[in-house]
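Supplementary notes (optional reading)

For those who missed the lab, this is the record we used. Protein: tRNA-2-methylthio-N(6)-dimethylallyladenosine synthase. Length: 446 residues.
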Amino acid sequence: MPTYHIITIGCQMNISDSERLASRLEQAGFKKTDNKYGADLVIINTCGVRQSAENRIYGLIPGIKKENRKAKIILTGCLSERKDVRRRLKKYVDAWLPVKEILNFKFKILNYQRRGNDNFGNQDYLSIQPKHDSNFSAYVPIGNGCDNFCVYCVVPYARGREVYRSAQEILAEVRGLVKRGYKEVVLIAQNVNSYKSPIPPSPPLSRGGDFADLLKTINDIPGDFWIRFLSSHPKDMSDKLIKAVASCEKACPQIYLPVQAGDNLVLKRMNRQYTRADYIKLVKKIRKQLNLPSSPFIKGVIWKPPVSITTDIIVGFPSETRKQFNNSVKLFRQVGFDMAYISEYSPRPGTAAFKLVDNVSPAEKTRRKNQLDKILRQTALANNKKYIGKTVRVLMENQTKVGKWFGKTATGKDIRFSAKSSICRAGNFVKVKVTGAKEFCLAGKV
Ligand code: SF4
């Protein structure tokens, strides 16, 4: 039986695409191997969002080809359609696979006979039944692509315009996961809160069919599981959605809300379509609604932690002055993020910003990144210290050594804890008393 090995670089959408690709390969008669140097097919699922992610493949692919000469190399993901990437890697790559073509991938170009069902008609690749890596937590893509065209971003070009799955299909996937014992479903799309069911929703989704309605309907599925979702564009985070999150006891109080810049002029040049004041007002609204003592929250919880807010921000966008960057600094202090992914701007071919002069020096970008990172560490630590002495519900992920476990709180905090009990198993919920806090990790005891 021929073997395959998938290397995934990038975001949750790529991880989820790889799970669908794995399922498609197994359907065609391939078997998974953990050894990239022994596999017959090596698939690299690429990310083109930052130069650093792109650079990884330029070392990786020639290295695999050198060590594993018989391997057929397939390149998929964000970079699979970029002409300059194709030119640079053409002597190493055997086939280029745009993500949406996963379903109808022509195995014959690799001289492999395809097995199983060949007739997929017009089915979308998101309808493939995925092969999940975890048996308790699963990404469920609700759509693909983006219509927002932020000037620095490749996603609308690499993935295309927004396409959403029907609510019926998503609900069926979540019901199946819950039935198989999954404890966490993570609804993903580039912009979950612009979701709209493409076909008129039918019962039980008798409401309008937007993301708030979808969330409430998933919350009504019987079972003990958590719902997370990401990411949310601030301009589309409606009052209706905030109220829905606050009213759903399975929806985790963790909001991923990319800000990208703290200065109005930079935000405008990025085409983000909100101001710094809009963002701050939105965070206040989220905190007010989700921290209400009356809002129902996760069964079995003893202490209700405050909603955690995660963001993405770019430093050194073309012509970002020190003064403009200082507005990002102020925003970081004002919001007090729990987590932030801080990136140094890198021009992405094909985007509108690629034509702008990348005139903030690499050293200055790093300095700005470090400055924000320092503030993030302070605010994250202050937020985490509020957990000390409290008991929280934790989803166990894995054992690190005998009696030591790693898991996540509903607010998405990593937690290491000791537990000797026989009830301990990856995928179980346990109550953990928090005894210590660092910037990005809690410590505790079952
Ligand atoms: S919202 Fe902007 S940053 Fe996010 S995927 Fe769409 S274009 Fe890219």
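If you only remember one thing from this example: The chain is about 30% helix and 20% strand.
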